[in-house]
Write a structure and sequence with these properties.
Length: 226
């Protein structure tokens, strides 16, 4: 994931942004610039000429009117990555929407992957950490979000392997404790139903959810027997 390679400011969407990306993306942009300066860009080859009457027209002059499709695709990708980290699938979809040919998209994205600007594995691991910390999502919800973003199943499995069951359970306890502040004074069954629905939306399975909820409610003075 990257920072804009065409000079625009860094912009991140609150819903999609992942922490700790700016410095790494700046380094990746440098890597791309260095790599591209040492070899051919896009599909451009040796300078060619064509006849226009008695005049030879340099290839570079024609390119001003006909932009290299690889350059167009590259700039689209870089602008997308400036707004927020993206998976390869998300970038493929955007390029297709913008009318870029699939073979052009493949060449550009392969190159971006090679220099580290597109990295679905790093994206998945970063998203898992971020969504756990900021939204308290459990493995099931994390997996669903990664699939929606086009991360391959094997990379999802690797990223979720880092999630410790006890850490997930502790996060559920924190979520329940915080939500209970808005449910004090309600009937226990109502509290249980609302908390269970809340944790289900976060991706927690029923077994963990009801155990954590029962423990939390048992500790409330209003539900303790004299």
């Amino acid at each position: 994931m990257t920072v804009d390679g065409v000079g625009g400011p860094d912009v991140q969407r609150p819903g999609d942004s992942l922490p700790g990306t700016t410095e790494r993306l700046a380094r990746a942009r440098e890597a791309l610039a260095t790599a591209e300066s040492g070899g051919p860009r896009g599909s451009a080859g040796p300078v060619a000429t064509r006849s226009a009457g008695d005049t030879e027209v340099p290839e570079s002059a024609r390119e001003e009117a006909e932009p290299d499709p690889h350059d167009v695709a590259r700039n689209i990708v870089l602008r997308q990555l400036t707004m927020a980290p993206r998976t390869r699938k998300q970038l493929e979809d955007k390029l297709r929407l913008k009318g870029c040919a699939d073979d052009v998209a493949r060449v550009v994205l392969d190159r971006m992957t090679e220099v580290g600007l597109v990295d679905d594995e790093a994206y998945a691991r970063t998203l898992v950490r971020s969504r756990q910390e900021t939204k308290g999502l459990a493995s099931r919800a994390l997996g669903q979000e990664l699939r929606r973003k086009g991360v391959p199943d094997e990379l999802i499995a690797d990223a979720l392997a880092d999630v410790e069951p006890e850490t997930e359970r502790e996060r559920a306890r924190e979520l329940v404790s915080k939500r209970l502040r808005t449910l004090r004074g309600l009937d226990r069954q109502v509290q249980t139903r609302r908390l269970a629905g809340f944790l289900a939306r976060k991706g927690y399975d029923a077994g963990v959810a009801f155990q954590v909820i029962r423990e939390a409610l048992d500790d409330l003075p209003e539900h303790q027997r004299d």
